[in-house]
Structure formats: structure tokens, C-alpha cells
Amino acid sequence: MTVNVSERPRAVHGGERPVRSRDPGWRIVAEQECRDLWVSGRGPVLVFAFSVLLSVMTYLAGTNQVLNFLEQREAVNLTLQVAVAVGVLVTLVVSADAISGERERGTLESLLLTPVSRRAIVMGKLVAALSLWLATFLVSVPYVWVLGRGVSIVGPAILLGLLVGTLLAVALSALGLLISALSSSNKVSLAVCFFLLLALFAPTQLPGGGPKGWFGDMLVRLNPVGAALRYLTAVVVNGHDWTRDLSYLVSPLVTAVLAGGALVIAGSRIVRLHGGVSGE
Amino acid sequence: MAGVSLEVVRLTKRYGPRTAVEELSFTAHRGEVVGLLGANGAGKTTTIRLLTTVLQPTSGAFSVAGVPFTRPAEIRRRVGVLPESAGYPGHQSGSDYLRYHARLFGLGRPEAARVAGRLLADVGLEERASSRISTYSRGMRQRLGIARALVNAPPVVFLDEPTLGLDPAGQRQVLGIVRDIAVRRGTTVILSTHALPDVEEVCTRVLILDKGRVLISGTVGEVTATVAAQRYGQLRVPIELVSPARRALAGVAGLTVEAPDERPDVLRISLPAGVGGEQDHPERGMNLALRAVLNADVPVLSFEVEGARLSDAFLTMTGDGVR
Amino acid sequence: MLVLTGLLVAAIAPVGLAGSAAAAPSRLPGTVEVTLDQSQIETVVGQVLTVESRIVNSGQAPTDRLVAHVNVVSLNGVYVDLEDWSAEVTQAASPLAPGNSRTLSWKLHAVNAGSFDVYVVVLPAGSASAGATPLVVSPPVHVTVAGRRTLTAAGSLPVAIIMPTLLGLLAATGRYRLRRRG
Question: Chain B residues within 8 A (CB-CB) of chain C?
């Protein structure tokens, strides 16, 4: 077979310039990553599996003859918490693979060889990971509506669920990307992220809500996941005004700002060809 | 002389006590194909990664197409690279992959699609443009990688082991593309390879690296001549006429003749310079040897000269400690 | 003579009148009264009710800081957790001058179906009233909460079926297209 590399009709230096894109680099990366997740990846299968889970939960709640007003609110709260948990989990897993996975698959070097800055690459991957959280949340909306329409909680539950979940998703996705960039291998990155998830979610499942008193409350407030879920419960189940327990959202907000900030500031330094602390 | 497209001055890269590249200096001009040779660990890939801004140098300077190394994003706009261990996203099609990278280099959507289509046709992947990369053969992936390296029409292209793992037909295809890039586009190609015949075939200049330093540089002819490796000739004659051939060669002063046990019909002739009174012209000695055999009415079935090739010079430079 | 009698009556009458008020509650200095704006409420479970209580200082001396507390009592044995009905069951009010009044609003969530009485208790002298001044209680508001089952299997079935079906179809279509591309 004869192959010819033809002369490019338009020279880069001098002559007619090619039409340049105004799209920022992070957006191009985000678009492609989203395509990889949603068109050729596992995204649709994940949300399908999640919807099956929610359907079972909702149907069981619907067939429960003794479900009273409060328990219906608890059902709404549980749906939101499951949506947040699943959304944050898949977002974190995708983030954990984002840099270390590309490194191991050998596709990171090609990305680093483009004029797009490393910071923009990381931002694009963050946005793509967050699309998983948004999709998970959107899937949960009809279920929240069905469960909550009789107890006057649908609007606040959806809005606050979106706020709280987005804060957590940004925080954990940024952390996941940092861990992925710094890990020496993809296995290490995924293991550390799973451990992080376990450490954050496990205390929320303690019987009785965990230690009581000021110390217990402090522990809850320090844990961004625990604090966020406590806030949701206070508003959705206990009927508190949404401003009353806003202090619980401090740790998710601080985590999101710190992790996101670290990613923006250090992104260009930590996204390297080789992983590990001393890698380059 | 064509303009300078790549200038490297005392480029050094250290990892703690280990030096990967040391005081590397060279220049490449427009349209040249420069071969980077060296054993494993000689610093070829590190050199390419430094020049393409993937790694930061410890010291030294370089400029690519007139852009100094202090502007890495600008340099990346002006280079195309086929990394040695390039991976490809298996779930993307070849067309999607090229369009994505074209957009990363700043092309708009329609232009990116057009460039991707053209490059795929250029490297012979037009019919498989919509197929997933996971279904591509190794050779197809290498061609896709070369297409990706050309997506921004760069003045300088770095190809790290482009023929690695390819069958002879695939190697020929890739080398054809490399030649086209340099000749028809006037692109400077920096080619890192172990395949010395490839270098002899396409490279206009050669740099031999060892432990991060340049041992020798020049054209292929200059390098092989400079090293002055011992020359040998392998002469094959009909097996029943080996003895008359030996007697004929014995009459040529200065030749040493051996008959390898495994090949009784082959005579191995060492040709030191100066045979037949011709200083520094071993090929004249070879001519005298041939004439002697032919005059003895011994047919020559095949004749091959060793030691006049780049591979011999390379092995001499890197193998026996000659510097 | 008549003038003297009138003066005597004017001097004695307030004492006599004060005596009769004590029999049917007497008005002490700093006395408060509390009333609610409604006497009957009918609602459905899940609804939010607002009850307003009016605290009046009907005495002749200013009150101390007042503490008001709302209570919900079940009349048919349904367990009532006050925290579920209202997040704010206690409110404080600043001291009231004689003749002044203050209105406190109470938001209650009808979380249980059944028959209930809602009333407000006021501690007229604040924390200083412990063991001394009797509590002031409002008349109750009788609240009837009708039950309503808003979540049924039939109501949840459409969403439970449609969502996974739609998403499953989307996922399958995507996989099929990918496989065809090859």
C-alpha cells in the first residue's frame, strides 16, 4: 500500500490561517470525557441500575400500609441520602481513575503534549465526573416527587438535595482527582478513594447516630458527609427551617473550597507523566 | 541552508544522583530527518520528552521553531509527537480520536473533522475511520499515532520508536510516511529508533547517545567512516570450488581468509585498510579479492560486505567502550 | 352627710371589688391572661397550622420576662411527639407593661391523624415564678386531623416502572450502537 502525506493546503506559518476554536481547553476535555462516560462508557448502565434500586425502594414504601406522615418524610430523606451516596460514590470512582488510569493506559502523555494546560485538563475531568452526580440526582427527582407529594416536602427536598449533593460531589471529586494525580498506580488511587468513602460514610450509619453530646455533635459537623446528611434529615424529616441548621453545611463547603482550590493551584504541578510523590 | 527548526544547547536532566541526559547539544534544520540512536537507557526518550516539554530540564536550553523553552505551551503548538509507549482509548474511533486532538490544538469542529479525515486518508486508515481503536492492529495504531502527531501541521515532529513491533511491511509503510513528512512538508523529523536499517534508509543525520551523552553525530556516512570499523567480506562460491578460490585469494597480499564451519561454501575475508597499496580504502581491497577469484574462473554466488554499516559503527561505539 | 357617705363608699368599694375579683380569679399586679385566636381547627395530616396566642398584661404592674410553651394533647390515645409537631415549642416574650399585649405565633405540623387539644402555657414571672406564681393557661384549640394516605402502591407504580424502563432502553440502545460501530 502506498501512503502519501499530502501537503497541507493551508500553511500554519504564513498564508491562510486555520479557523481557531474559541472553546477553552477545559471544555473540550470535559466534552470528550462526558462522551466517553455517556456514549461509549458505563454511565447509562450505572443510572439504569440506580433507577432499579430506587424503584424497588419506592414501591416497597408504597405498599407499606402503615406508612404514616413522618415515615413518608423519612422515605423521602432516605431516597435523597441514597441518591447522594450513589452519586458521590460514582463521581469519586471516576475521579480516582481520571489521572492514574490514563497514566497506566498510556493515554496521558498524548494529552500532556497538547497546548491545553494541565490545570485545564484537570478542570475538564472534574466537570465530567460531576455529570455523574447530576445524572444520579436527576434520576432520583421523580422518585422524590412520588414519595413526597403528599407531605409538602418535594420542592425543598429537591432543592436542598441538589445543593447538599453538589457540595459533596465537588468536594469528593476534587479529592479524588488529587489522590489520582499523586498516586503511584491506579490500584493505589482507587484503594485510597474507597477507604476515604468508607471513612466518611461509615459514621453516618452508626446505630443511634453515634456519640451524643458536644463531642458527638462536633464529630458529625467535622465529617462533611455526616454533616450534610444530618442537615438534610433536619429539614426533610424534622421540619426545621432551611436556615436553622445551615452551620452543618460549613464542613462540606470548606472541604469543597479547599479541595477545589488545591486542585486549581497545584493541578499544573501534580499532573505528571509518572505517578507517586517523587514522580515526574 | 534550510532554516534552523530545533536548537538544543547543553540540555541536562538529572534525577537525584542519576543523570539521564548530560550536556546534550545539537541543531536540526528544516526538512531534516535526524536519527537518535542509543542502547536502552541511553536517554533518547528522555531527550524527546524534554524537547516536547513533558519533562522539565535540570539545566540547558532549547528552542523549537524559534520558540524558546520558557514558553512550553507555545512549543507544544509547534510540535507533533508519537510517544514510545503511546496508548489509545480503545472505545473511541480513529476519527473521534483525531478530531478530539485537533480540537485540543485549537481547531474548530468543522476544521477538526476535515483535518482528521484527510490525515486518516493519508496514513491509509480511511476505511477504518469509524471503527473503534480497540479493533485496530498494532500497525494501524502506529499509523494513527503518526496522524495524531501531524494534526497541528507541526514544523517539528518527534517519533519515538515508530516501527516498534511492526512487521517488515508495516515498517516500510511507516518509513514511507516519515520520508513523506520530511520531503513533501519540509517538516523536521527527530526519529528515535533501535532499527538501524531504518535510520540508514531515511535519516539525513544521526546522533548516537550513550548514558545521556552524545558520542558522535553526523551523516550516516560520516559516522560509519569516523568509527572505521573493521571490514569483512562474505564470499559464497560453489562448494566444490572453495579450494581454488582460497588459492586465488592467497595471492592477494594482506587478506585473511576464514571458512566458517557452519557454512562451508562461504569464505570470510577480513579487509584491513591499505590492502593492495590503497590506504584508507578497504573497498579497493575487496575489488582485488573479487578480481582474483573471478580470474581463477570461480563463479561468485554472492558477496556481502560487513563493517561498512551503521549498525557496526553503533555496536563499536556503544559496545566496546570506544568513545 | 351625703358627701361623707360618698367618700366612705369610694374608700371601701375598691377593697370590696378586689375581694370579689379574687373569688373569680382576682387580678394581681403583673397578672397576664392568654387567649388563642381559634377554638376549632379541622385539617388533614401533613398540613401546617398556625395558631396565634395573645398574651395580655391585665394587671397594674409590669410583668417580668415571659416564657410561653405550646402543648399538644391527644384525645384518642395517639402517641404525640411534640418535636414532630413543632420545631419551636417554647418562645420568650419581653416584659409587658400594664394593659399591653403581645401576640405569639405557633406553627404546627399535623403529623398524626386524630383528635387533639392544643393550648399555650405562660410562666408570668419568667424563671422567677418557679414554685410561686401559678401558670397561666389558654383555653384549648380543638384540632381534628383527618388521615390521608398519599402514597400508595398504585401511585408509585408508574414511576417505579417507567424510569428503569426508559433508562434501560437508553442504555441498551447505546450499547447496540457501539457494537454496530465495531
Answer: 91, 93, 130-132, 135
Residue B94 contacts residue B115 (beta carbons within 8 Å): no
Helices (H), C78-129: 82-85
Q: What's the pLDDT score for residue C50?
A: 92
Task: Quote the domain boundaries for residue A28.
Answer: 11-191+260-270
The answer to whether A11 contacts B56, with C-beta atoms less than 8 Å apart, is: no
C-alpha cell at B39: 542502547
Does the residue A152 lie in any domain?
yes
Is A224 within a domain? no
Residues A37 and A43: beta-carbon distance below 8 Å: yes
Domain membership of residue A1 (yes or no) is no
Q: Please give the residue of chain B at the shortest CA–CA distance from A37.
A: B91
Q: Is the predicted ipTM greater than 0.95, yes or no?
A: no
Contact assessment for residue A87 and residue A132, using Cβ atoms and an 8 Å cutoff: yes
Asked if residue B319 has pLDDT above 50, the reply is yes
Mean confidence (pLDDT) of chain A: 85
Residues of chain C in contact with residue B131, where contact means CB-CB under 8 angstroms, are 181-182
d(CA A44, CA A34): 11
Higher pLDDT, A66 or A207: A207
C49 bridge partner residues: C108
For residue A60, pLDDT over 70 is answered with yes
What is the value of pTM for the model shown?
0.75
pLDDT of residue C24: 33
pLDDT digits (tens, 9 = 90+) for A246-272: 999 999 999 999 999 999 999 888 888
Question: Computed from CA positions of residues A111, A112, A116, A119, in that sequence, does the dihedral angle turn out positive or negative?
Answer: positive
Is residue A130, in this structure, part of any structural domain at all? yes
Nearest CA in chain C to B135: C182
- How many residue contacts between A and B have a Cβ separation below 8 Å? 112
Which range in A55-64, A205-214, C87-96 is most confidently predicted, on average pLDDT? C87-96
- Helices and strands, number each (H, E), in chain B: 11, 14
d(CA B288, CA B250): 11
How many structural domains does chain A have?
1
Measuring CA to CA, which residue among B184, B114, B105 is closest to residue B149? B105
Distances (CA, A) of B204 to B188, B223, C77: 11, 11, 99
Residue B34 confidence (pLDDT) above 80: yes
